[in-house]
Every structure is written in C-alpha cells, then in structure tokens.
Design brief:
Helices cover about 80% and strands about 0% of the residues. By secondary structure, it is mainly α. It has two domains: about 1-190, Growth Hormone, Chain: A (Up-down Bundle); about 195-405, Up-down Bundle (Growth Hormone, Chain: A).
C-alpha cells in the first residue's frame, strides 16, 4: 500500500488544530454568553448560531469552491474563523458575541467543504479509506483534548480560549498556505480526470451518493447532536447519576469511536465500503435504540461503547465512498456542499426532535427514534452500489444515469 502524500499530512495536521480549537472554546462559550446577563435560551443560541450559519452558507460555499478553487476558499475560511474568534474575545455585549460567533460559522463551512474537496482530489484511490480514517481520528482527538485544555485556560478568564484559538488558526493558515502551495487541489497523477462536473441533482440519482447523504445525516443527528445534548440528560435524569458520569459516558463513546476508526479505513480499502458500512450502521442502530431502556449505568456505558464502535466504523467509510464518487471529477462543489449540509442538518434537528420526544414520551422512545433514523440509512446502504477501487477497479465512478447513457 502506497504512502500518504505529504500534502495530505498537512491537511490532517490542520484538521487536528481546528478540532482542538473547537473544543477549546466549548467550555467557555456558554458561560461567556451568560456573563452578559442573558437567559439560558439566549446563551444556547450563541452555540446554535454557529451551526445554523454553517448550514445556510453551505450551498454558496459549493459554488465558491467551483469558481475559486479549494485551496483559496480553505484559507479564506480559516482566516474568517480566526478573525471572528478573536473578535469574540473582545465582544462588549451579547449581540456582538452572537454576531461574531455566527460569522465564524460562515468561515467554518468554507474550510470544511474545501478540506474535504482537497482530500478527495489528492487521495490516491487505494488509500482513500485510510486517509478518511486519519481525518476522522484527528478531528476526534482534537475535540476530546480541546475541552480539557479549554477548561484550564478558563482560569485566566473566559476570553482567553478565544484568543488562543484565533492565534492557532492563523498559524495553521500560514502552514497550509506555504506547505500546500504546490499541492493544492492537484489530483493524484495516477488517476486521470476523465469524468466531468457532477452537480447535486446528477449526484442524487446515484444510489451510493444517496446512501452517503443518509449516513452523514445520521452522523450529525446521532453522534454530533443527540450524543452531546440528550445522552448526558439520560445519564443524569433517566438514571439519576451525577453529572460526572455524563462525561464518562461521552468518553466511553469516544473510546469505541477511536478504536473502530483506526481499523475502519484500512478494512474498507481492502474489502469494500459496504462490508464496513452495514455492520457499523447495524451496531449503531441497535445500541442507540436500546440505550433509553438501560436500567443501570453499567449497561448504559456498554451501549455507549457499542454505539461508538458502530459510528467509528461508518463515519470514515462513507467519507471514503464520497471520495470514490467525486474523486475523478473536475468539480463536485454542490454535491460536496450537500454532503456537509446533511451532517449539519442532522446536528441541528436531532437534539430538538429527540429532546421533544423525550419530554413527551420518555427516553426510551426518544432513543428508539434515533435508532430508526440510523436503520433508514442501513436500508439505503443495502441498496447502494459498491465503489471501493479494490473491489470495482481503479476506473472513475459513474452514476447509474451515466452508466445507462454510456451503455
């Protein structure tokens, strides 16, 4: 198996810094908002504004990537987040903080979509799964360690984490600008660009792309949304455990996640995307659906571990499948932006819907709903076509419509 190109290592390192900083400000942001004497709802809105702006600006980002190129939009996005985060540190009122944090969401979606586009175009086909695994692991490691560092920085004031994160982003921007100068957006030379532009409407006709959207929606809904917002409530209110046990539950999920991510990429490169996706989705659906009925903490932690393993199997694998679908394209801006939007949509809607069900019907039905959402993605992946080069060959992936036309 070939080595990962140097340019990809640069992107992976920048991804760790970005994730680290995202976790860095997580402990400070709600408390900082509350320091302006606003309600809990208003403080939560500062957190939500970032995700909402990511979601709203994603379609425009896809067009910008197509027109100006991945590397340029990536760097602009990093600098926007750096500037907005630095501005947050000096916000003099609630509405300033809300505005600055929302602006960060615009930059975030710019560098997220661009980073994925760069990874797709620069990753050799036979190691796409491994690259996606490292990308997911780097984000997870950064998001786990970030809050620990942020909690330490808060001792020097609620504004300090924002200053540190903005400086780290500027450094990351300089590294990417200098080290990717000869690599930005250049596809692997062994894979000729033989297929034209794939926009969202054309991509949506492909069964694999539809399955990718569904599993990425599940990733946002379950792993990024419900896990963070509702699982801690189940531990404290449903099982009557202390708040510290909520952190343990999230850490146990992360342990399962990291353990699975380490092997998922390599397995999908060797055996195909579907043989890894399907077990991952099945395990995640069953473990999550059963979580709300756990009678004690021990079983709840075991189910969190299983759900983390399931998520770790499918998260990097559907990223690799997306690279299979778009890797030989000249551009995939709108199709790539929709991929990012699917996760954001799940992260925004999941906690609201599941929280509402938990209020009205209890934690059991609430987590069953999340398991059902995951099961829908499982069905779509059952119907999806295999895309891994090791299984189908090294040629460009064609959508079902293109295959019919070609035939």
């Amino acid at each position: 198996m070939r080595q990962i190109p140097r340019g990809i290592w640069v992107l992976l390192a920048a991804n760790v810094v970005i994730a680290l900083g995202y976790g860095l400000i997580a402990p400070a942001l709600p408390a900082f908002a509350r320091s302006f004497d606003v309600s809990f709802t208003a403080a939560s809105a500062v957190v939500s504004a970032f995700a909402v702006m990511r979601l709203l600006f994603a379609p425009a980002t896809g067009r910008l990537v197509t027109v100006f190129g991945e590397r340029r939009i990536y760097l602009i996005g990093l600098l926007i987040v750096a500037g907005s985060t630095f501005a947050c540190a000096f916000a003099q009122g609630y509405w300033q903080l809300l505005l600055f944090r929302a602006a960060g969401g615009v930059g975030s979606t710019m560098f997220t979509v661009s980073a994925m586009a760069l990874l797709i175009r620069m990753s050799p086909g036979d190691i796409r799964g491994r690259v996606s695994g490292y990308f997911s692991a780097g984000f997870l490691i950064g998001s786990i360690s970030g809050p620990l560092i942020g909690s330490a920085l808060v001792q020097y004031g609620l504004r300090m984490p924002f200053v540190v994160y903005s400086i780290a982003l500027v450094i990351a921007s300089i590294v990417v600008a200098t080290q990717l100068r000869d690599h930005g957006g250049r596809p692997d030379p062994s894979q000729a660009v033989t297929v034209g532009v794939l926009d969202f409407r054309a991509a949506l006709r492909d069964s694999t792309y539809r399955a990718i959207l569904s599993s990425n929606f599940v990733q946002g809904w379950s792993s990024m949304g419900v896990r963070v917002a509702v699982v801690p409530l189940f531990i404290t209110d449903g099982l009557d455990e202390g708040a510290a046990m909520s952190g343990v539950a999230l850490a146990v999920f992360a342990v399962g996640n990291v353990a699975a991510i380490v092997v998922a990429g390599r397995l999908s490169d060797t055996f195909g995307r579907r043989p890894v996706m399907l077990p991952g989705l099945a395990v995640a659906a069953v473990a999550t659906g059963a979580l709300g009925f756990a009678p004690n903490l021990a079983l709840a932690l075991a189910l969190c571990l299983a759900a983390g393993i399931g998520s770790g199997l499918f998260a990097p694998t559907h990223q690799a499948a997306l690279a299979d679908v778009l890797g030989n394209r000249r551009q995939g801006g709108s199709a790539l932006a929709a991929y990012g939007m699917s996760s954001d949509l799940g992260a925004v809607s999941g906690p609201i819907v599941v929280g509402f069900v938990a209020d009205k019907a209890g934690f059991g039905p609430a987590f069953v709903l999340t398991g059902a959402v995951t099961a829908v993605a499982f069905v779509l992946w059952l119907l999806a076509a295999e895309t891994a080069p090791a299984v189908v060959g090294a040629g460009p992936h064609l959508t079902e419509v293109e295959r019919d036309t070609d035939g």
